[in-house]
Design a protein that fits this description.
Blueprint (H helix, E strand, L loop, with lengths): L1 E2 L3 E5 L3 E5 L6 E3 L9 E5 L2 E6 L5 E3 L2 E4 L3 E6 L4 E9 L8 E6 L4 E8 L3 E6 L4 E3 L7 E3 L3 E6 L5 E3 L3 E3 L3 E6 L8 E3 L2 E4 L3 E6 L6 E13 L15 E6 L4 E6 L6 E5 L8 E6 L2 E7 L1 E7 L28
Parallel strand pairs: 2-5, 3-6, 4-7, 5-8, 6-9, 7-10, 8-10, 9-11, 10-12, 11-13, 12-14, 12-15, 13-16, 14-17, 15-18, 16-19, 17-20, 18-21, 19-22, 21-23
Antiparallel strand pairs: 1-2, 22-26, 23-26, 23-29, 24-25, 24-27, 27-28
Length: about 325
């Protein structure tokens, strides 16, 4: 640990292994003499096993700029009472693997600039916990997140996604959602694929690029049934695949947003040669209390187009 009382840095070319049997793996304190404290992690390989509490706990700012972090935690993996920054603009950023935790990344303000982040959690994968500090910004990086019981990305304020490659899966079939924000979810860039076992997402979304929504529990015929470990694709009306992946859990709701999704065009979700649902892409603002409001009239049209009438769109 280097630096002054106010500013600490873990860095270097070596490997540091930490095992915390009772408390936090790494703990950073508060401000001193009116100066903001901060903890920065860069370059080194850091392996932390903290089965009882947080792997890293900062009472002020936590910067994870680079390096390799392998974390298992009983509570939060990376926690900051104030601002949590991952990576930096125009850098490769850190490689973070969180194999076990309650919540993975938590801060009053959460910023993801770059890096490769792989998360397995039992509660929220990412949580911006202070609604007064409304910044929850993802501008880069490659994020794969799975939770067995919580929200994927949760913000008590707004959520802004301007870049990166984001995949979020939530297995909970109750009221937990892949993306959850008390304010507005704004998407202006990047690729976002989120899916879950619940009825969908309660959100206000504003996207300048195209997005499609499948499922949402609007009736038996409108429920997507995507099984865990199944390979799936999203294809345009010409049959060209715009996304392919493997389900990390059972899902009845899928949302996809990317620069190559064209508004007012149809996109089909399928497993193998079996079409599960077709939805019409849109841009702009929509609001829903559950899934199925993001594509066309109801977010999903049955593949054969023959099942009932589509209910009217809900605007606000």
């Amino acid at each position: 640990l280097t630096g002054s009382d106010e500013y600490g840095t873990f860095g270097g070319s070596g490997t540091l292994n930490l095992s915390a049997a009772g408390k936090n793996g790494i703990k950073s304190g508060t401000e001193n003499e009116g100066r903001e404290a901060s903890l920065t992690i860069r370059e080194l390989t850091l392996n932390i096993d903290a089965p009882v509490n947080d792997a890293v706990n900062a009472e002020q700012t936590l910067n994870v700029e680079s390096g390799t972090l392998n974390i298992s935690a009983g509570d939060d993996a990376l926690h900051s009472d104030y601002t949590l920054n991952i990576g930096a603009e125009d850098t490769a950023g850190p490689a973070i693997t969180i194999s076990t935790c309650n919540e993975a990344l938590e801060g009053a303000t959460l910023n993801i600039f770059s890096g490769t982040i792989d998360i397995t959690a039992t509660d929220d994968c990412m949580n911006a916990a202070n609604g007064d500090l409304t910044d929850y910004d993802i501008s880069g990086g490659t994020i794969t997140a799975y939770t067995s019981g919580g929200d994927g990305f949760d913000s008590n304020g707004n959520m802004t996604i301007t870049g990166g490659s984001i995949v979020v899966w939530t297995a909970n079939a109750a009221d937990n959602q892949p993306l959850d924000a008390d304010g507005t979810i704004t998407i202006t860039g990047g690729t976002v694929l989120v899916a879950g076992g619940s009825a969908g997402m309660g959100y206000t979304i504003d996207a300048s690029q195209g997005y499609v929504t499948y499922g949402g529990g609007m009736g038996a015929d409108s429920t997507v049934r995507l099984s865990k470990d199944s390979a799936f694709t999203i294809a345009d009306a010409s049959g060209n695949t715009v996304y392919s992946g493997t389900a990390l859990c059972d899902a009845s709701y899928v949302f996809y947003c990317a620069p190559d999704v064209t508004a007012d065009s149809d996109y089909t979700l399928a497993t193998g040669s079996t079409a599960l649902a077709t939805a019409t892409a849109q841009t702009g603002t929509s609001r829903a209390s559950f899934g199925g409001m993001g594509g066309g009239q109801n977010g999903m049209t049955p593949p054969d187009g023959a099942i009932g009438q589509t209910p009217p769109a809900m605007n606000g």
